[in-house]
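OP here, attaching both records as promised.
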Amino acid sequence: MRRKIPESETIKLTNRTLMITPEGFEKLKEELNHIWKVERPEVTAKVSWAASLGDRSENADYHYNKKRLRELDRRIRYLRVCLDEFKVVEYHPSQEGKVMFGAWVEIENLQKGIKKKLRIVGYEELIGNSDYISMDSPVAKSLMNKSIGDEVVVKTKIGDMVWRINSIQYQK
């Protein structure tokens, strides 16, 4: 028998910022549309075909595609919730000269001679973008509201790193 866990014992999964860039929002909408109109109908047809063959207990096609259908439905539910909850943050001229959400920031560590160009975005936009960082990351939090030429200290497990802001750009 399963024990019902009282709400006070449940763990809050994340405490992420619910902001997203317009480009990120469009990508999520496209993904939802693709899953709903292309992938899900294909998998549903495969499940129906496999079910029509008879005995399902040893039918690998049936079991695999039923599992895949559950995964797609889970992603559809997640995307629908995200698209409803996310706040799309558009560029505004008042952001110029300051590091804010959606900014491309070039930073440099003079001690180690490292240069990086990063974009500060929401968590859901990180997948597949190696030059994007989450707004909730220590680096992004340190950079927020800073200007070109400012130096920021980022505290990490291996020690503090000092980064200088070389440029700030926004996608307009």
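Record two, same layout:
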Amino acid sequence: MFEARLKINVPFFDVDAMHVVWHGHYVKYMEMARSELLRQFDYDYPTMKANGHLWPIVDLRLKYVASARYGQDIEVIAKLTEWEHRLRIDYVIRCCDTQKVLTKATSIQVAVDIASEEMLFESPDILFDKLGVQRS
């Protein structure tokens, strides 16, 4: 339903001596796609904060399937799959030329009220407004 696609040409400064992407950079690529996804419905991090909420990542899981390499065009796909009580975003990173899956991942974020620093057990109303969906 809510999806962002981001194309990246792997830069030299993201690879090791074997010209393979260092594992930590996949998280950076996911963050770039996640920010693009959130901007699509006007709920990026500045908007979250302006509405009194932080959304820290509380769980991040990655499965490395194959290596991305220097100069390779990759596509990072981020899909919002849950939003009732948390934001769950599923990711696939694949080679643009072959469509081979390189990495699969999932991130979980929860809403935290900035004023009280308390975690919310339901997503705030503003998220549902931005998504244009009703609470179930």
